[in-house]
Amino acid sequence: MTMLYEGKAKQIFSTDNPNEIIIHYKDDATAGNGAKKGTIVNKGVINNKITAIIYNYLESKGVKTHLIEVLNDRDQLCRKVEIVPLEVICRNMVAGSASVRYKIEEGTTLNSPIYEICWKRDDLGDPLINDYHAIAFNLATEDELKKIYKMTDEINRHLSEMWHKLGIILVDFKIEFGRTSDGEIVLADEISPDTCRLWDEKSHEKLDKDRFRRDLGNIEDAYIEILRRLKEL
Fold first, then answer.
1. Which residues contact 105 (CB under 8 A, 6 or more apart)?
2. Residue 78 in 3-state DSSP?
3. Segment (H or E) for 10
4. Does the global pTM surpass 0.85?
């Protein structure tokens, strides 16, 4: 296999099939656009399993993803896609950067979800942009944005219901999309405690990467707890 790309949390490898790739999950952890770096023991193994469970759940609800199958503890076989260079953020409660930006207390429930997009540019710190920027900079078409927002709304609805059944609040999450060889928009990348804020419904204990970002400790235990509850599905 030839490595095509290495990111903060994953490596992408080619396969014999030009329309398929292998995604390898690493234990590396970063925060603040790479300013803070570390390792979470077995994070790659856990996030591989978590993402597979969630993607299979979403597929059962009619959401198309790039996942084909899990190969082993750290590797997934996925459809090869052209990643749309946008991070799509859905906020159901105010937390993290939104709390700082808007001076609203963390944990405040919103009247309706907030959808944001960021330009995937590490050199610029993944800046927050709007639809007009995305279209003007040729990052996505108007039709693609409509599809992306529609899918994000569906994903939020399905995942909020799923997590509620497991006693967890889906505070916010970040997802990415890709274009297949025939131009179809599908969910790509991962959904895990790396990309979601997940709070226990009763205690509001944080069960996500904020434990790494904020030096709260028990990081591995939080990821393991998320996987344990997902297995109840």
1. 94, 99
2. strand
3. strand 10-14
4. yes
